[in-house]
Amino acid sequence: MKIAFVTGILASPLVVLAQLNALAKDAGLLYFGTAVSPGDSNDAPYYRLENDIKNFGQYTPDNAQKWDALQPSRGSFSYGAADAIVNRALSNKMLMRCHTLVWYSQLPGWVSSGSWTKDTMTAVMQTHISNVMGHFKGKCYAWDVINEALEDDGSYRNNPFLKALGDSYFALSFKFAAAADATTKLYYNDYNLEYFPVKADGAVRIAKLVQAAGVPIHGVGLQAHMTVGRTPSRANLTWTLNKYTALGLDVAYTELDVRIKPLPSNSSSLQAQAKEYEAIVGSCLDVPRCVGITVWGFGDSHSWIPSTFPGAGDSNLYDKNSKPKPAFSSVSALLASASGKRPPWNTAASTTLLTTTKPAVATPTA
Question: Where does the record place the GH10 domain (predicted)?
């Protein structure tokens, strides 16, 4: 692979320009990807970067495959926006991480406000999962089957599925997903697994419940929504990833961003952000069954952070003008330095050495 190098940019001695996915694959990952939205096409510089497979080898729809988008009224499915993203990914020869089937949020009112029995909720879940996965059958490398089912204390989050079915909804969701498309990887996905050991253990509990039911589950997605100054160390992140590989599962970072607070950002906070991005990506490289990394958008102008966490932002690898930031430089340099040190993904080791001593736990995110 031919790589372009530029020196003297972004306070880094070396910047590898616009080849994150190519570098990640050379470093033994399957992909470096990004979340995408239908509105991305309105920003030409951003859209060009997004559509170059050297930059990104995988897409995740940010909202287009959620329940309220796909089945806004019972039995009425709408796939236009999601199809456009999936077809663009396939045209670009990119992988799709499809997201998400069973989640407490962004449910249409007919689901969230319905009065459900065990039997009626089972039927509703099966219909939704079967229809959606059947529509995209063979097009998704992976599906986030269940999203954010845990509170930060490790307890189950209250939602219509839990209320009607108890913890049996975990195995049922994966059972219906496996029946709908046996070719895709099936994931549990959540945030703050990196911060709260008790929540990380909750995800272990969910995975074991599914496995005990004899139902396929292939991986755990760690969203990795981080805050500068509070990101766990590389060693601690690696230790958390290995909780899931010990169960025979793959892992992936699925929604990565590292927000800065307070704003405006400055050279010091941007350099700190760069180091924390490097720690996160490095931890994935340290775990043979870490498949890849997906950033939750790559430019600050497309970030969800400012509207959700007032006073925080500048969380991505590129700035508001789609220009690379120090974090881009640090991640690129790390991936370049790891080239050839790990087998390509399809020959990666299926077992992982476990850390025997737990590292110190970082302060949780806010």
Answer: 24-334
Nearest to residue 252, comparing CAs of 202, 297, 226, 218? 218
Beta bridge partners of 322: none
Map out the domains of the chain as residue ranges: 20-347
For the stretch 50-77, pLDDT in tens is: 999 999 999 999 999 999 999 999 999 9
- Using only C-alpha atoms, the chain has a radius of gyration, in whole angstroms, of 20
Q: Identify residue 319 by its one-letter amino acid code.
A: D
Residues 148 and 106 sit within 8 Å (Cβ to Cβ): no
Active site residues: 148, 255
203 to 144, 150, 161, 190, 212: CA distances (angstroms): 13, 8, 17, 8, 14
Residue 160: asked if its preceding bond is cis (omega within 30°), the reply is: no
**Architecture of the domain spanning 20-347:** Alpha-Beta Barrel (3.20)
The pLDDT tens digits of the residues spanning 153-207 come to 999 999 999 999 999 999 999 999 999 999 999 999 999 999 999 999 999 999 9
The confidence score (pLDDT) of residue 346 equals 67
Of how many residues is the chain composed? Answer: 366
- Beta bridge pairs of residue 225: 257
Residue 280 tokens read as 């996160």
The pLDDT of residue 14 is: 40
Q: At what angle do helices 168-180 and 197-212 cross, to 10 degrees?
A: 60
Where does residue 316 fall: left (phi above 0), alpha (psi -120 to 50 degrees), or beta otherwise?
beta
Q: Which amino acid is at 351?
A: T
Nearby residues of 195 by Cβ (< 8 Å), 6 or more positions away: 152, 230, 232, 361, 362, 363, 364, 365
How far is Cα 222 from Cα 316, in angstroms, rounded to an integer? Answer: 17
